[in-house]
Amino acid sequence: MLPQFNQCRKAVWEAVNPNTSMKRIDEAFPPEIRKSARQTDMHIEFRNGSTWQLVGSDNYNALVGTPPIGIVYSEYALSDPQSWAYLSPILEENGGWSAFISTSRGNNHLKRMYDFACSSDNWFAQLMTAHETDVFKPEQLKSIKAEMIATFGSELGEALYNQEYLCSWEGAQPGSYYGKQIALARKDNRITEVPWTSGIEVYTYWDLGVDDSTTVWFMQFAGMQIRVIDYYENTGFGWEHYSKILKEKPYTYGDHYMPHDVEVREMSGGEFADSRKDTAEALGIRPIITVPRARDSQAVMTGINSVRNILSRCWFDKTKCWQGISALEGYRAEYDEEKKVMKNHPLHSWESHGADAFRTFAVGYTPVLDKGADWRKKVNKGTWRST
């Protein structure tokens, strides 16, 4: 399993070994042992009845109906962690196995899994730097580091070298929009236990999807401090599901902020039906505040800058928000393979959904300053922390 399905064909299925001029797939699975090979979904059936298939973490639903016995993740740090949440119960039921191979790429869901594996008797974890694998000679590594520093500058070049060759968890992903801000939040201990306070309303901020994920951030405001207490993400469900999720939580809600497409009206029987907003409010998700869509061509980058500016005031619950934090940390510019530069727009990946929902917050945010008085009194009594 690769991070994205569109990578599978280029990186594996049609890749050629430059040393042998043979397709890598033919080297791994010679035609003599195959019964069939489907080009469309990159699926191989072997003569002994076993099967093998390439999938992306962005289309893990392709495995529905063909429960795997084993899964190998390549570059899990870039993969959608929700895919593992979906597939791991299948492996448990089948008595299956899994392996995760990846570069570190920041303090993210891979780091969480690695830490868990190190502490579990049922997992094996190994971290190997370039000095331990003997793939590169010391003089090669010295030259590589010098080249990266010359290309990317001292700070970024050294961080990239430490990440790619020394398995450092500290560096942000190349092109990450919020990597520095999330790293600073970690350094300041603003990714910690952030409890819900019952006397303060909870506001929600959304990104909407049907085929793609729908994501929700849950926040409370205490003075000038923004407490990000919860995060939810799922895919393929209607408003009834999200209404149920919100009602199951103990929160008293304020407003629900949603992007402009909540105003879209669906077609039913050849006529326009209610808008998404009408449907959601009828199910109890109300009041909904529509965040207008900016008309200028730089709207996305303007929103990204709004997020950067507001992250310094945010405290994140490390348990309930871990998936959203990983999305923010991994949200990055698309890389131009031909020109070897970052493009001026984001890569659409699993991280986009959580990041877009947070951008809904940053663009639509209105300070709720009067909500913090009681909270500050509680803080002074030592029930939580103050800034």
From TrEMBL:
This is Putative terminase.
